[in-house]
Amino acid sequence: MNVNRDSCRPSKLGLYDPQLERDSCGIGFVAQMEGRQSHRIIQDALTVLEQMEHRGACGSEANTGDGAGILTALPYGFLARVAADQLGVELPQPGRFAAGLVFLPRKATPYEAARRMTEEVIEGHGQRVLGWRPVPVQPDEADLGATARDAQPVIEQLFVAAGPGWDGDRFERQLYLIRKQASRAVREAGVVGQGELFYISSLSSRLIVYRGMLTPAQLRPFYPDLSDPEYISHLAMVHSRFSTNTFPSWDRAQPMRWMCHNGEINTLRGNVNWMHAREGVMRSEVFGEHLREVFPVIEPDGSDSASFDNALELLMMNGRSLAEAVMMMIPEAWQNHETMPDWKRAFYEYHSCLMEPWDGPASIAFTDGQCIGAVLDRNGLRPSRYYVTHDDRVILASEVGVLPVEPALVRAKGRLEPGRMLLIDFQQGRVVPDEELKRHWATRRPYARWLGDQRIQLSDLDPARYDQAFDPDTLLERMRAHGY
Q1: Any idea which residues carry the catalytic annotation?
Q2: Which of 20, 24, 45, 284 has the largest count of CB atoms under 10 Å?
C-alpha cells in the first residue's frame, strides 16, 4: 500500500478506498446557558474528553491517536494579550477581527508559499492580515507518538481584521469565501508535494478549534493555550475520534468548524454526488456571482463528518439558521408517521425536495456561538445523555459519568430520543424544547400550501401529452449524460 509520507494517508488500493472513510467516536459539550464565560467551562470540557478515552482509538502506537479536539467561543481577552505580547498587534473590538488555527507545510518553501497565497486571498476580499502567531505546542509533554510527529504540520494562529463595512454575518461570509478559496488555491498548486498539509482548521470571529492527531489525554498538554486562565468561554465542544475504517490525520480530527459527529453517514456517496451535481444550477442571493468561489462545496479527502460540516456550512452561510439547517439534513422519520402534525410533515416533505437526508446512525452536536445543541438520528442508534444543573450548565456526552456532578446540583437529566433535538439558546438563557423549536421553524413559511400548489404526482401526468423525445440523433448522447 502506498502511503503519502507527508499526510500519512494511504492511496486507493484493493478493497480500500478513501471515499469510503467513516468514523465512530465520542462527543460532548459543556455550556453555560446564560452565556457567562469562564475558564471552568474549558477545564470541564477537557475532563469530559479525557473520560471518553475509550471512545477514541490509536494504532499500534498507544501514543498516536485517531484524533481529538475542542471547539470554543473566541477568547477575546486571551487573544488580545498574546497578539500584543507576541506580535505587537492591538486587536480590534470583538466582532471586528477573526482568528483561527492553520496547519501549514513543514518545509520552508511550501510554508512560505502557503502563507503568501492565503494573504493574497484575504487582501483580495477586502480584509486585512494582522499577523501569524506560532501556536505553542508541547509534543514531548504530551508524549506524542512517532507517527503523529511525522505527520505533524506547522501550527499557526492567523489573525484577520475586518475591512471597512464588514461586520457580523457579512464578515463571517467573507471569511468563508477566504477559507474556501485559499484552501483550493494552495491544494491545487501542489505546494511542492506538501499541499495536503495545508488546512484551515477554523477561521471565524466567533468560534475557534484546537485539534490534532492526538489521543484525548494528549490534547490538554499538547496545546498549553487551553490551560491559560485567561482562556474563557461560555461553551466548549469536544470530540474523541474512533476511525472505524479510516486513516487518522491532523485535519480529520474533530470538532469540525460547526459540529462534531459520532456515527456514520451511510448515504454519504449519494449526498456528496448530489451536492456536486447541484453546483451547476445553484443560485445565491447572498453570494451572487461569488458563489462559485465556494465550489466544490464538499471538500476533497474529507471524512463523512467533514462532508456533513461542509454542507451544513453552505446552508448557514446562505441565510438559514443552524437549527433549521440541521432539521433539513437530519429529518425525523416522517413518511409513515401517521400521528405527526401536518405542519411538521409539510416542513420535512418540502425540504426533501431540496435535499436528501444525511442518513445513518449518528449523534451530532453543533454550535454557531449563539446557540449549541445536539440531534439524534431517526433510528436512535447512537447514545447521547445530558444534565442540566442549578448553576445553569448543560453537560451532554455520549455517555453518563464523564464529569463529576453533585446529585443535589442536578436540575434535570435525560437522553436524546430518535429524531429529537436539544437546543440551548444563549440569548434566551434556556433549553428550547424540541416541539417548540420545530414548530417555530416549520410554521414560519406556508410549506403545506407550497406543496399543494407546486407538487406534481406521477398519476397527474398524461403520457400521451408529452413527447418522449426518442430522437435517434441525440439518444446516445442523452444516455451517456444520464450515466448509461
Answers
A1: 25
A2: 45
